[in-house]
Amino acid sequence: MGVIARYREHLPVGPATPEVDLNEGSTPLVPSRNIGRALGLRHLYFKYEGLNPTGSFKDRGMVVAVAKALESGSRVFMCASTGNTSASMAAYAARTGARAIVVVPSGEIALNKLSQALMYGAKVVALKGNFDAALDAVRDVTNHYPVALMNSINPHRIEGQKTAAFEIVDELGDAPDYLFLPVGNAGNITAYWKGFKEYQAAGRTTRLPRMVGAQAEGAAPIVNGSPVLNPRTVASAIRIGNPASWEGATSARDESGGTIAAVTDTEILSAQIRLANSEGLFAEPASAAPLALLFRLVRDGKVEKDAITVVVLTGSGLKDPDAALKNVEPPIELDGDARTLAKVLKL
Fold it and tell me: Which residues in 298-338 belong to E strands, given as ranges?
């Protein structure tokens, strides 16, 4: 059962909205076994969005955006993407028989993510420039032609993505004290905050979490207070210099009493490896950014030890494994029998 069927009463859908789903959502809230203990945190959880159909949280919002686009008569979808959005849009277009057009910044997208869009049958155009230039071009096209814009500036994307907040409350029985998540185009932090507030208004939660967003040091426009012309970070999913949902992100931060801060690429890759080695969860680099920020805030005494803390892992590590593989020990190659193998492994 997908998010539309599960949360229909909280979504902008009606009898005329087509039934669309890939059984997205219902991702696990995984209790920490080792990192929480090492940090002294009693209640640390990971919301593992990498188990959505295309491997990222984007599927939640895309299913609602696609359903509403079909309802309005559109059969051509278009987005700018650093990877995850394109994969999700292309999958749902294939599912519904629509046409998908993806514009990516040339040379700035992980091959694994690009392969998804291509395999789902999307037309992919690599445009010179960064993500922001690609989004400007897509906005221009969709303003002048009968093509549905499917980036997170489409409000239906935010509506679908807020269902992750519902799931966290449904499982915990209340909202957490802190929600940590990466901030790139800023739609997700906007959506989570919207979801928590709606559940509070409906009497489903007694409190609201502090929203803590992590940007990469080389792509931190919200932290710096101004757009970044040439964003740079190993975390391609948050390599965005001028977030479309900037205002929503700052509202979530300020209204919740939270913070948005930057972490270095070194911190991101270290957190990614520690998460995989300690918890058995392989998440893409962008997902490790909020964990890296959690490490810092705990070290600085800014997160209470008994707080209920959730870190959102937005995408699977299989989306972009190259960066991680540069920082782990390569396979051992040898000639020999079982005795030689045992000797090398010091068994």
Answer: 308-313
Question: DSSP label at 238?
Answer: G
Sequence-distant (6+) residues with CB within 8 A of 275 are 35, 46, 281, 282, 283, 288, 291, 313
Output phi, psi for 42, to 5 deg: -80, -25
Neighbours of 171 (CB within 10 A): 12
**Secondary structure, 3-state, 62-105:** HHHHHHHHHHCCCCEEEEECCCHHHHHHHHHHHHHCCEEEEEEE
Q: Compute the average pLDDT of residues 342-346.
A: 82
| Sequence-separated (6 or more) residues with CB below 8 Å from residue 291 | 35, 180, 271, 272, 274, 275, 311
How large is the average pLDDT for residues 28-39? 98
pLDDT of residue 308: 98
In whole angstroms, give the CA distance from residue 314 to residue 291.
12
Residue 200 has pLDDT above 80, yes or no: yes
C-beta of residue 319 within 8 angstroms of C-beta of residue 284: yes
Q: What is the pLDDT of residues 279-301, one digit of tens each?
A: 999 999 999 999 999 999 999 99
Structure tokens at 260: 């948005």
Mean pLDDT taken over the chain: 94
| 176 φ/ψ sector (left φ>0, alpha ψ -120 to 50, else beta) | beta
